[in-house]
Amino acid sequence: MIVREQQEWQPALFEYTPEISLTESWGCKARELWGEKLGWLAELAHSHSALFFTDIGMGTAGIELPGASVIVHKDGSTLPNLDKIMEKNQVDLIPKLAFIVASTLNGEHINAVAGLAREMKENGAKGVIAVLTSLAHERQDHKFIEKGFGQVINQVTSLKDTVETLARHCDGALVMQPHSMRGIEFGIRHYFPMLPIDCLEFVVKKSGYDQIGNIIELGPDKGRQDEARRIANILDCPLLTLTKERDSLHGGKPKIIWPEGSRERIRDDGFTVLITDDEIRDAGTTEAIVDDLEGYTNDVRIITIKAIMSDEIKPRMVIRDGRLVQVKPRDKWAASSAVAKLNKSWIKEILITDAVQPIADLAPIADKIRIISLESEIEALVGYLRQNWIPLSQSWLRDPNQTGTLLSLDLAVEKHK
């Protein structure tokens, strides 16, 4: 038997171009459906349409005037006020075609978008396009397999219901940086065009990290490896690919597997470490990586489009069997807030967008936060779409020289197992 010594990891640059399909990608199929189903709205888009920032979810352009156009009751119910939304956006008459920007983190926000679309149509709109800076339940798209047993965990998935609710009153949607293309696929099944919009290149190029001479990108998750490769290519830097294990049945706390000698190489070469993900919700994966880097680097940078930042889970009194009992979090890891997990001295910057309103108070890490706004980019993208409604060429929604923004239609191939 030949025993081969395991080679230590070495940083290396590489060329990477994502696989783009003009026929098979979900983005392409959504584009074709857009033209087929919504072509009749072209004249209205050009002559009688308007863009509305709604405050639903308090994401992009909704932070300035909290509560001005949306009532959020203490039970969580969310009620948009159409008159207030029109006043905020300086629109006197409901247009025939309305674009409504919302940050839908939960089912209440989805109901609010659908209800607003219905209200607009009852008041004269012919079409409504949702512009979603986040999509509720997009992680709840498929069932997990029980670790070690290979059996399906029969938990409820809810992304299909989200898409069905949107399709009831909206005519189409633009989805900023979807977690996966599963929602786009569900939309096509329901004859509801949802265009996946890539924000990552815009944010990475806005970061200025290409000016850091010694930076390395980490690929923290099997599902995001192509994104990590793309970022490493944009920044012309090495990529370190990691492996993550997660027991979905028992809390889901991640474990990170590092290539042999990789952290030592980060330390010895003095790398600035960049961790990029489309969203940070509980910060479990990010915390696991950052904790493993303690003592190996004093400069970690994080980029995320959607900084959801879940809050701390605290013990509380609830009604059980007709009496009050105290319920505690399952474990210490689950109880910690995302902000607490990221409050490490060796994290120097967390670059986020205003796609969502973080749930937790960011005050403890305010000195680390830098925000890049998507508002003007969405305005440019929708402005292009209003003048170029029908996809007549392969560059539709993809050429910054035409659209005026690096936000673009995502035509990358993604296959679901």
Structure, described:
- The chain is built from 14 helices and 18 strands.
- With about 425 residues, it is an alpha/beta fold.
- A hairpin with a 7-residue loop joins β10 (about 245) and β11.
- α7 (about 200-205) runs parallel beside α8 (about 225-235).
- It is globular and about 65 Å long.
- The two termini are about 35 Å apart.
What is the gist of this entry?
The protein is α/β, with parallel strands linked by helices and 417 residues long.
Strand and helix layout:
Elements: H1 26-38, H2 42-47, E1 49-53, E2 70-72, E3 78-80, H3 82-88, E4 97-103, H4 107-122, E5 127-134, H5 159-169, E6 172-176, H6 182-189, E7 194-198, H7 200-207, E8 215-219, H8 225-235, E9 239-241, E10 243-246, E11 254-257, H9 262-269, E12 272-280, H10 284-292, E13 300-307, E14 316-320, E15 323-327, H11 332-335, H12 338-342, E16 347-353, E17 369-372, H13 375-387, H14 400-403, E18 408-409
Parallel strand pairs: 1-4, 4-5, 5-6, 6-7, 8-9, 8-12, 12-13, 13-16, 16-17
Antiparallel strand pairs: 2-3, 7-18, 10-11, 14-15
Bin the strand percentage: 15-25%
Question: What is the name of the CATH class of the largest domain?
Answer: Alpha Beta
Radius of gyration: 22 Å
CATH architecture of the largest domain: 3-Layer(aba) Sandwich
How would you state the average pLDDT, rounded?
A: 89
What does the oligomeric state look like here? Answer: single chain
Q: Ends: how far apart? A: 36 Å
Strand order of the largest sheet: 1-4-5-6-7-18
Query: Any idea of the CATH topology of the largest domain?
Result: Rossmann fold
